[in-house]
Amino acid sequence: MKLKALLNLIPLSALAIVTFLIWQQWQARTQSAHLDYDQPLPATAAQQFQLQSRPQAERAEVVSVHDGDTLTVRQNWQTFKVRLCGIDAPELSQPRGAESKAQLQALLPPGQMVSLFISDTDRYGRKVAEVYISAHSQQTGAEKEVNYEQVVTGNAYVYPRYVDGCPNGFLLVQGEAIAQQSRVGVWQRSGLVEPWEYRRQQRKKGNY
Fold first, then answer.
1. Percentage above 70 pLDDT, the chain
2. Sign of the C-alpha dihedral computed for residues 69, 153, 161 and 206 taken in this order
3. How many domains does the chain have?
4. 126, 149, 161, 176: the active-site residue
5. How far apart are CA 82 and CA 122, in angstroms?
6. Catalytic annotation on 91?
């Protein structure tokens, strides 16, 4: 009788395990639904935030640039903010902050048409995206990625906790290696504080 009772319990145990695994997956999706792009993610959450496929491109018109990694665009008569995926530019109050903004403004003047590959929406309502513009080359349809341009010119850092969530995050890592080797932008001198660390320090002081 004891053996028969034990065998009857096996299906229930299996069902409980499957239910627990499904709940864990749901929890992971819920936690990564609204990312805080101004604060680093825990490593485990960063590993969960990985795209399975490239998102659909959306066309939009640049309205303005806020800093080296954030802009406002217009799409179908609606405006919204876009946070460049996988990178973090110096804050305007940091060294190189103004230069980073100026570089993004040069790439994205008002009226510039862009292609957005939106991968998420952060907790501030900004669309997190890779942004592409015409490369102005002889190759028809050639585009260049603005996120990459900011990194390879030393006007932004790769954001380690979020770069894996970008469809072309590996290119950003390569671009940063080129900028470091060339010693351009933020890599011209040592001792500069990364923007995510700078914000953390400012929050401790009550400035953020």
1. 71
2. negative
3. 1
4. 126
5. 10
6. yes
Q: Is residue 22 part of a domain?
A: no
Residue 49 CB neighbour total at 10 angstroms:
20
Tokens of 58: 């959306």
Q: Is residue 33 part of a domain?
A: no
Q: pLDDT of 49-78, one tens digit each?
A: 333 345 688 999 999 999 999 999 999 999
CATH number assigned to the domain comprising residue 127: 2.40.50.90
Among this protein's residues, is 83 annotated catalytic?
A: yes
Q: Which of 59, 74, 83, 194 is catalytic?
A: 83
pTM: 0.74
CB-CB contact of 94 with 195 (8 Å): yes
Is 32 contained in some domain? no
Q: What does the buried/exposed string (b/e) look like for 55-81 if buried means 16 or more CB atoms within 10 Å of the residue's CB?
A: eeeeebebbebebbbbbbbeeeeeebb
Whether 163 and 37 have beta carbons less than 8 Å apart is answered as no
